[in-house]
TrEMBL record:
Bias kind Polar residues: ranges: 1-13
Disordered, as annotated region: 1-35
Record InterPro entries: HMA_dom (IPR006121), HMA_dom_sf (IPR036163)
Domain HMA: 39-104
Protein name: Heavy-metal-associated domain-containing protein
């Protein structure tokens, strides 16, 4: 392996590429990264304390028709949802309840 190839490989490995968790502690599916067209709504959810909580909330909200992206961050209690059209808050509340947490409103 040339020194140039080795340097490139170290740069990629050191950059966090392939990691599902960002530096702020939030975990997300890398397929959801990047610009997404649609309606973005930020909700406040109480009770999330870890990556498992984020995953449970994201999974339930992702099942709502029209949702294209969800990012939950336990540290802030914020859940960012991108959808094709505005979502009924009752549907999001039901999904969060199903995950075992409480939707307290929009941020």
């Amino acid at each position: 392996m040339s020194s140039e190839t080795k340097t490139q490989l170290e740069t990629v490995q050191g950059s966090g590429a392939g990691s599902c968790c960002s530096s702020d502690g939030s975990c997300h599916d890398t397929a959801q990264d990047g610009p997404t067209a649609g309606v973005t709504t930020v909700y406040t959810v109480t009770g999330m304390t870890c990556g498992h909580c984020e995953s449970a909330v994201s999974s339930e909200i992702s099942a709502i028709d029209g949702v294209t992206s969800v990012q939950a961050v336990a540290a802030t209690g914020l859940v960012t949802v991108v959808s094709d059209a505005p979502l009924a808050e009752a549907a999001v509340r039901d999904a969060v309840d199903e995950a075992g947490y409480e939707l307290t409103g929009t941020a």
